[in-house]
Structure to design on (688 residues):
């Protein structure tokens, strides 16, 4: 097996839940080095939880999570922080620090974790902003940015320390088509140019499948589909088909569980 | 009836659980304080946000409280022919009680609520999470400087409150009501003891500063990350810290002044 | 980043204002400004009744504060109250037959000890006892004496 086929992140038999609610039920995932892998599924299916498990923000109830050879749930705080310096994460809203300028936001990880002089940091920040096309916006405050611009700045911040992998939480949510195209292009380009491993959590089917090398589909805590975008599109599973082709009804029911309509209406009449 | 008992039991348990978490939280924050010696600019920035910006409300309130004290006490003392004692009355009331307590209540309302809202909002917009994912501990970077700034600001604000209040009393008593200036300050000097009164008042304000800031940052950090959650956390922060200040005031007063 | 400088200046001003307030409280408002009893020598005095005298009460001579009451105890041997006081070492020329009386400051004020110097040649030193004392006036006893004097006058 060549280095390129190696999995950077492996989840084996992972389970997680809140109280009685099961979010992940004995799932397996492999994220290959240098590739873009997408995780798709309906809202609340545990996609964001998956990212939190990989980043060590929560611990699984069972199973193992290995990132670059390290067992994440077993790491102590100092070691976990060392690992996180090599991971980048892009949150849904960008999560820029509202009190700092764009420049200071991108410079933050550099100032905190490297002892580099300000002049060098300045050059690095400008280069990162250039990569996302926002070098001219460096003195703006986050409140002055549009949603798409904020996300691009957050991306520049995520690559500030030249991580080995980046996780994206719903990067396309709420964007207009042009901005969406820009973000798609950036994700793919950065992955290839910087040799990153990218994990994208999204439910924007067309966008995410067009830039991914591998796709996982999860629902109800289980992996429903797993393969290249073409394989998944050709899948016969009714669940996968409903999700991919945006059918309103299918394995994921349209109606929230309730008594038959006739009974409900009749009840109303007799009670009233 | 059973339901009510169950509700009471449930609420007590969750209150205790919350208090436990608050205690663990404050230990974590204290652990991060020594490292602040290397990042003083964070503390300075917070001293500004929490201390300097509270000055206006503190000074205006102190002036008014001092003037009202002067007026009210004069009206009572004049019945005993003891209006010359107005100096010590105003000074002792301020230095022992009103300075630390009212300053703490105002601080809770102005600075405490701002801290809760700020931290709660950072939690709701995932700024705290993203900081964690960038391998920076938000408790050390965001919370610890704010706690330290609160503990340092409170005694200063209480002292300023007492001093301005005494001046307010002076304006009313000497300026408006004709009490002798020498009597105002002279009697005061004889009656106010540095150790027993002023220092005890400062100790009170340090304790209040710790409690108010602790409650404020904890409520923010623990808030439910939605708009409604942050709003409720902010209200809780002001209410709980005000109640805590008043309750602690009784305990501290009993300890410090009860034996005299 | 220029704002940082303004912020630092304002924080500095804030801290300076706080310290100034403390200073003002110390000097103008409290007894820190006046000379406190630093060094002093201990003297005791016995009274039948100390009335409302309390620890920390002033000890004055000629109206000037020269010392402080440090402790009040009850002697079970001779059934008298014993008052311990510290007199500032600057005032070391109190004759050994100085008398101590308990007075009340003003009408409703606190009680204090007034020292009246005697005429002896040697002076009070650390550990000495003041022998001539006058107890506090207790209101009930005063009324009792007054009533007694009144009825006496009527009879006589």
């Amino acid at each position: 097996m060549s280095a390129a086929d190696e999995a950077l992140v492996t989840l084996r038999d992972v389970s997680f839940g809140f109280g009685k609610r099961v979010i992940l039920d004995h799932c397996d995932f492999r994220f290959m080095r240098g590739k873009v892998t997408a995780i798709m599924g309906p809202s609340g299916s545990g996609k964001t939880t998956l990212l939190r498990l990989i980043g060590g923000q929560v611990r699984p109830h069972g199973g193992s999570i290995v990132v670059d050879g390290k067992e994440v749930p077993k790491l102590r705080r100092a070691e976990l922080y060392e690992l996180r310096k090599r991971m980048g994460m892009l949150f849904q809203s960008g999560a820029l620090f509202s009190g700092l300028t764009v420049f200071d936001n991108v410079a933050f990880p550099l100032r905190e974790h490297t002892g580099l002089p300000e002049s060098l940091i300045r050059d690095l920040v400008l280069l990162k902003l250039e990569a996302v096309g926002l070098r001219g916006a460096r003195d703006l405050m986050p409140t002055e940015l549009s949603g798409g611009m904020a996300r691009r700045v957050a991306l520049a911040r995520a690559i500030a320390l030249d991580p080995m992998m980046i996780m994206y939480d719903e990067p396309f949510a709420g964007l207009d088509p042009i901005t969406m195209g820009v973000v798609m292009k950036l994700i793919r380009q950065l992955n290839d140019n910087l040799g990153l491993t990218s994990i994208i959590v999204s439910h924007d089917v067309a966008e995410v499948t067009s830039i991914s090398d591998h796709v996982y589909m999860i629902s109800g805590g289980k992996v429903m589909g797993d393969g290249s975008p073409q394989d998944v599109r050709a899948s016969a599973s009714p669940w996968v088909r409903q999700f991919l082709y945006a059918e309103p009804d299918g394995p994921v029911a349209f109606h929230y569980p309730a008594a038959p309509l006739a009974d409900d209406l009749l009840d109303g009449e007799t009670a009233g | 009836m059973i339901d009510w008992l169950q509700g009471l039991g449930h609420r007590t348990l969750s209150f205790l659980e919350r208090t436990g978490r608050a205690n663990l939280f404050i230990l974590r924050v204290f652990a991060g304080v020594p490292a602040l010696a290397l990042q003083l600019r964070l503390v300075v920035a917070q001293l500004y946000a929490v201390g300097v910006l509270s000055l206006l409300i503190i000074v205006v309130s102190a002036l008014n409280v001092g003037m009202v004290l002067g007026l009210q006490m004069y009206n009572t003392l004049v019945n005993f022919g003891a209006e010359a004692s107005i100096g010590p009355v105003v000074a002792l009331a301020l230095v022992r009680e009103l300075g630390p307590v009212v300053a703490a209540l105002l601080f809770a309302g102005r600075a405490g609520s701002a801290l809760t809202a700020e931290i709660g909002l950072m939690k709701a917009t995932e700024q705290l999470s993203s900081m964690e994912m960038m391998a920076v501990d938000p408790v050390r970077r965001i919370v610890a400087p704010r706690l330290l700034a609160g503990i340092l600001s409170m005694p200063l604000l209480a002292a300023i409150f007492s001093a301005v209040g005494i001046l307010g009393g002076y304006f009313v008593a000497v300026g408006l009501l004709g009490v002798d200036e020498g009597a105002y300050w002279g009697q005061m000097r004889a009656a106010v003891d540095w150790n027993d009164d002023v220092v005890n008042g400062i100790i009170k304000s340090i304790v209040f500063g710790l409690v108010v800031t602790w409650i404020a940052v904890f409520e923010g950090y623990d808030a439910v990350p939605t708009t409604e959650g942050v709003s409720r956390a902010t209200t809780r922060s002001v209410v709980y810290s005000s109640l805590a200040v008043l309750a602690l005031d009784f305990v501290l007063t009993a300890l410090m002044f009860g034996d005299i | 980043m220029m704002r940082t400088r303004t912020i630092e200046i304002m924080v500095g001003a804030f801290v300076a204002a706080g310290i100034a307030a403390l200073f003002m409280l110390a000097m103008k408002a409290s007894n820190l400004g006046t000379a406190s009893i630093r060094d002093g020598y201990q003297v005791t005095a016995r009274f039948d009744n100390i009335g409302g005298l309390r620890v920390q009460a002033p000890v004055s001579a000629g109206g000037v504060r020269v010392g402080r009451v440090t402790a009040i105890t009850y002697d079970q041997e001779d059934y008298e109250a014993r008052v311990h006081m510290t007199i500032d070492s600057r005032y070391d020329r109190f004759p050994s037959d100085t008398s101590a009386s308990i007075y009340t400051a003003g009408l409703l004020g606190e009680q204090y000890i007034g020292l009246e110097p005697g005429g002896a040649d040697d002076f009070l030193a650390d550990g000495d006892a003041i022998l001539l004392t006058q107890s506090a006036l207790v209101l009930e006893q005063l009324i009792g004496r007054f009533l007694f004097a009144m009825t006496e006058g009527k009879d006589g």
Notes: Chain C touches chain B through 29 residues (CB under 8 Å). The helical segments of chain C are 2-29, 139-155. The first strand of chain C starts at residue 40 and ends at 47.
